[in-house]
Amino acid sequence: MATTPSGSLARRHVRRRPLRKRGLFSGSARGGNMAEIESPLAANNATLNDTEAIAANATGRFVATPEGSAVAYGSLVLMALLPIFFGALRSVSCAKSKNSSDMPETITSRDAARFPIIASCTLFGLYLFFKIFSEEYINLLLSMYFFILGILALSHTLSPTMNKIIPTNLPNKQYQLLFTQGTGETKEEIVNYEFDTKDLVCLAFSSVVGVWYLLKKHWIANNLFGLAFALNGVELLHLNNVSTGCILLGGLFIYDVFWVFGTNVMVTVAKSFEAPIKLVFPQDLLEKGLAANNFAMLGLGDIVIPGIFIALLLRFDVSLKKNSRTYFYTSFFAYVFGLGLTIYVMHTFKHAQPALLYLVPACIGFPVTVALVKGELTEMFSYESSAEIMPHTPRLTHFPTVSGSPASLVNSMQQKPNSPRRRRTNPSPM
């Protein structure tokens, strides 16, 4: 989606520029142009856009220098790769975790088929909300919602690092926040949040970043939350097999193209939506430093959706037990190629481009081609990621929000105390 010049990362007194036909647009911050690559997280997609350079002496508007554009887009690509790479590595540990509170949510083929429909309904619902109600009140609620989610996601992201930094000889007390409903056999958990002293340090730091973002909407605070959302999404949302991944990516491929080129719904939502659902980097950083305000943007959907497929291929590599990461590196390179191709086409044709139009064929086509060459296509499509974890892994039954906490708050909220955990057992020989 696209934000207006008066969006969360731009100043309120900005002069507006006309929209491009059937695509996202370039806004301005203090009269400057803004090349955009962004999307709503609920829609889990992003589109790319750029504007033709306009002579600064004729309009007084900011024109990004080649160096500034290169730094901005290069930084966005690098920031997109970080949560995919580390999120995929953490997804392997997450899949092998025996702690029920850290279990990932598994997306099945049914979930994948419904996902574009749910995303479309969510996007259109936001469109109606912004048409009927005041943008200020809606964005106020969204800001508070993402403020809470951002703190939890960033805390969950920092938790492993904090465990390594804080000396082991320091006291580390355990805490539990528990809310239940009912009594006796009908008693069920509403919230079961386990944490320790180290987690409190992470929460304190994340809260400072949250307040900073809430008050200033600074692009660095936005990126910290955005990276945390993306990494948590790649780590905690698991596809159960390659076929499901193809269904999900194929459905969102159609979704992305339709909502970008077929209607103005995404543009309208993009102009109105204020939330840390994208990574941003200023094109005028070299001129203005940290006070820069003309941004290139990359939507989190373009990171999380291909990222969970790349993480699946890494787990497939691990299951082969060949001490190689062929499919992971292939899909990782395919993502870089697809994102680079999108930026190239955007700059060549000066028109909005749905990023998944290029990312989906690349991320699916490259690994499948390698599997065909190596004769492992059957193994790839018969691989079941969910078989590596306990069979009680919760299924994704609703549209996901990327969140996290030191104890995976979302997962623990879904668990019931009287539901015994069943583990796989091998039948004893007769």
End-to-end span in angstroms? Answer: 61 Å
Tell me the helix content: 40-55%
Strand order of the largest sheet: 1-2-9
Calculate Rg over CA atoms: 22 Å
**Helix segment count?**
14
Strand content: 5-15%
Let me know the largest β-sheet.
Answer: 3 strands, antiparallel
Based on the structure, what is the oligomeric state of the protein chains? single chain
Instruction: Report mean pLDDT, rounded to a whole number.
Output: 75
What does this protein structure show overall?
By secondary structure, this protein is mainly alpha-helical. The protein contains 14 helices and nine strands. A three-stranded antiparallel sheet has the order 1-2-9, sandwiched between helices. Residues 1-59 and 389-430 have low confidence and may be disordered.
Characteristic key phrases:
430 residues, disordered C terminus, disordered N terminus, three-stranded antiparallel sheet, mainly alpha, two-stranded parallel sheet
Short description:
The protein is mainly alpha-helical and 430 residues long. The chain has helices at residues 56-59, 66-96, 109-132, 135-165, 197-216, 219-236, 242-261, 265-272, 285-288, 301-320, 326-349, 356-374, 377-382, 409-413; strands at residues 36-38, 47-49, 105-107, 174-181, 188-196, 237-239, 278-282, 295-299, 353-354.
